[in-house]
Amino acid sequence: TFFMLQVLCRYQHIWNIDLRLRPAFLGGIMQATELFLKGNKPPAMLPKRGEYMLKDIKRMAKYYQVPVKISEGDFQRIFGTSTLGAMRFITAMDMTQPGYLEPLSREFWIRFWSQREDISQPENILAVARQAGLSSELTQKLLEMISSPAVKNRLRETTDEAIKYGAFGMPAVVAHFNGEPHLFFGSDRLELLGSVIGEKWLGPVPS
């Protein structure tokens, strides 16, 4: 998802698109779809697939020029970290000042995937907010909002919306084109996305 976020943000002023980031909770998507997919599990939980993913993520990080650092044992760190607080913080931002959504999302990804910090910890959420350029007043307001029913309901709604469009994992991109929604799953579908909307794929780092 970090790869997809970075590359789509690079293309938002090159392709004729209106890019809208919609915070959704992956855990909720996995839970809802496992009833229909007979045990929908993250790929890394399958031993051989996890072994392959470890190598592939390193290759993709170089190809996409995204600073992901991953090593053996990291999958346990990932599965053992709750991202719900971070997702609610991002959702509160989406409800308050959506213009900050892109830098805030990026800083959460960098802290988790590049600096390998535990983003469930309040001090790391504060550090992310500072790095994204948020004022201390706005940060405090968002922290107060994350336990509110309004934020919880909004995150639930966007998660349900993703499921409605057919999402079963992340990254999930819905392209609304010619009056019809088109779901794309996976960061390796950007070239296909461009083809469907009539835009040219110029590689992961377009000039």
Structure description:
With 207 residues, this protein is mainly alpha-helical. Helix content is 57%, strand content 6%. It contains 10 helices and 2 strands; from the N terminus they run H-H-H-H-H-H-H-H-H-E-E-H. Strand 1 and strand 2 form a beta hairpin. The chain is globular and about 45 Å long. The protein starts with a helix and ends in a 10-residue tail after the last helix. Its EC number is 2.5.1.18.
Summarize the structure in short.
The protein is mainly alpha-helical and about 210 residues long. The protein has helices at about 1-10, 25-35, 45-65, 75-80, 85-95, 100-115, 120-130, 135-145, 150-165, 190-195, and strands at about 170-175, 180-185.
Largest sheet: 2 strands, antiparallel
Q: Please, how many helices?
A: 10
Question: Strand fraction band?
Answer: 5-15%
The overall average pLDDT, rounded, is 90
Question: What's the shape?
Answer: globular
Q: Strand tally, please?
A: 2
CATH superfamily of the domain at 24-162: Glutaredoxin
Name the CATH class of the domain at 24-162: Alpha Beta
State the CATH topology of the domain at 24-162: Glutaredoxin
Please mark out the parts with pLDDT under 50 across 5 or more consecutive residues, or reply none. Answer: none
Distance between the termini: 22 Å
Q: Over all CA atoms, what is the radius of gyration?
A: 17 Å
Based on secondary structure, the structural category is mainly alpha
Please estimate the helix content: 55-70%
